Amino acid sequence: QVQLVESGGGLVQAGASLRLSCAASGRTFSNYAMNWFRQAPGKEREFVAAIRFSGKSTYYADSVKGRFTISRDNAKNTVYLQMNSLKPEDTAVYYCAAGEVADTIDYWGQGTQVTVSS
Length: 118
Known about the structure:
Blueprint: E1 3-7, E2 10-13, E3 18-25, E4 33-39, E5 46-51, E6 58-60, E7 68-73, E8 78-83, E9 92-99, E10 107-108, E11 112-117
Parallel strand pairs: 2-11
Antiparallel strand pairs: 1-3, 3-8, 4-5, 4-9, 5-6, 7-8, 9-10, 9-11
């Protein structure tokens, strides 16, 4: 089992920045591809960003490309999501997710709320 705990969410104004963190425990962190998803009220959960095992490969949804950066520190068992130039449409619960195989999800965190006011 892998436990994932997100932190760093909050209420900010449009144009501000936030950094989300996701701390993992339970198994070897570097064996997992890590992802961020988000779910806005009344909408389906959507992919935001992914980072492969060593951190050399990253992927982003078009809606966040150029504004968000995913990174990981395997020594700290933590994945980050740096969010810049936030927009009201970025308002959502953000979830961290881990998968032993790239593009699959085995574990989810509990989510952290991000609210961007206009």
